[in-house]
Amino acid sequence: MSQRPERMHRVRLRVNGQAREGVVEARKSLADFLREDLDLTGTHLGCEHGVCGACTVWLDGAPVRSCLLLAVQADGAEVMTVEGLAPAGGLHPLQEAFWEHHGLQCGFCTPGILLSAYAFLREHPAPTEGEIREMLAGHLCRCTGYEHIVEAIRAAAEAGAGAVPPGSA
Amino acid sequence: MKPAPFAYAAPRSVEEVVALLAEHGDQAKLLAGGQSLVPMLNFRLARPEVLIDLNRVPGLDGIRLDGGLLRIGAMTRQSTLERHAEVLARCPLLPAALHFIGHPPIRHRGTVGGSLAHADPAAELPAVLACLGGEVVAQSRRGERVIPAAELFVGLMTTALQPDEVMTEVRMRLPAPGAGWAVLEVARRHGDFALVGVVALLELGGEGAIREARLALFSVGPTPVRARAAEEALAGRRPTAEEFQRAAALVEEALDPDSDLHASAEYRREVGGVLARRALTQALARIPGREAR
After folding, report:
1. pLDDT at residue B291 in the model
2. C-beta atoms of A27 and B55 within 8 A
3. Based on the domain organization, do A159 and A93 belong to the same domain?
């Protein structure tokens, strides 16, 4: 990137361990780049202003809102999306727990919750219900009433899901 | 819900940043953590011609304790400051205030300088700066200047920073060792914007009387509000429930909040008084030797 302000930019980054690149308008969000240019439609876009949490992905090892990050800002970065959480053809233990405990209905909010919950469980391997609910305050779900999501995350914690690397069952 | 087109530059030094600001002036916006600016771009409430990204400028982040001063690079992430061991030990009210900002994914990107420059009236960090006292350093082609906390916030989302200036450092005065503190706010959900909030510091003198009390309220006006009348009334008095109640009444009297969709002016004024009293009580309980009373 030069320091002359430009409207078009080349972006090279790693997504779920693979080198990817594209040419984007400066105004394109990372979320739209993932969905439209890289065909990774597991990342969902709800509110587009950082409130609903559906677009949460990992950037360089920490969860961020991909609707509040420009694709051009992710140049050189390491991104993980929900597609990187599951092993090929299977489910990560965190996803298993959501399945077991009915932690989703329509599933729109689920990818963002999974990526936040995974970061949360790495830092809080034995969370209290209060801590789980505070973490979930950053994610809007309009189906479940959250009860089953809380149960799923508690079960995932008991199963040690936070210690299981992405892409493993 | 997508931004209008803009040109983007990612300068690699403060010199390049100020050169771009000098060239593009108020056509340009500085992009720090983007947790407030990008929503405004997405809503097209902000339509800059040029976006100058500060995220690739080396040396704009970092945390240093320098005597009685905490020096924070303007681009330091809120989550980094929140977890800093020395800050937790010497200025625990700061991590406590940061914890109220949004959610972890917001604080991983959001910056200290960005929050202060955005100057949202419901934001925690401007009130922390107002309570602790301190200053920010601004740089432009005209040189460097220091803006004291009391002069930084001039109105609703408006600071004394000029369109050609970039904030490079935030300096906060560390509380005296043993000072009591509290950060309280009322919001609908954790991470929502505060309906009313308060940051309090309480320092006792040798005789157990109050040496200094400081109260900064937020979300009760266009800028953080220091409750000066209450602070002056408390100085020199004994820290009793009656004195705190009297101070709370003075806080309530001094506030002149607006009504909006989220809360009426009357509600904000009353809750401001209640939170001030609770914050003083909690601050007192945090002073070593006062825990049990």
Report:
1. 60
2. no
3. yes
| A35 min Cα distance to partner chain B (Å) | 15
In a domain, A14, yes or no: yes
The mean pLDDT value for A25-38 works out to: 98
Segment 9-68 of chain B within 8 Å of chain A by CB: 9-12, 16, 20, 24, 34-35, 38-39, 41-43, 50-53, 55-56
What is the residue range of A105's domain? 86-163
- Write out pLDDT tens, residues B150-192: 999 999 999 999 999 999 999 999 999 999 999 999 998 888 8
B292 pLDDT tier (thresholds 50, 70, 90): very low
Interchain CB contacts (distance < 8 Å): A and B: 115
Q: Which amino acid, B153?
A: F
Burial class (CB in 10 A: 0-12, 13-18, 19+), A39: exposed
Nearest by CB to residue A64, choosing from B4, B41, B109, is B109
For chain A, what is the domain count? 2
Q: Give the closest of B39, B53, B104 to A50, CB-based.
A: B39
* A115 lies in the same domain as A136: yes
Question: Distance (Å, rounded) from C-alpha B180 to C-alpha B203?
Answer: 6
Take residue A140 and report the two structure tokens written for it: 């809007």
Going by pLDDT thresholds of 50, 70 and 90, the confidence category of residue B206 is confident
DSSP state of A2: -
> Which residue in A155, A125, A149 sits closest to A136, CA to CA?
A149
Sign of CA dihedral A98, A100, A101, A107: positive
What ipTM does this complex have?
0.94
Residue A61 and residue A33 share a domain: yes
**Is B34 close to A68, i.e. CB distance below 8 A?**
yes
- Among A53, A83, A113, identify where a domain stops: A83
Q: A15 and A37 share a domain? A: yes
Cβ-based contacts of B4 with chain A (< 8 Å): 27
pLDDT value for A1: 43
A63: nearest CB among B3, B53, B108: B108
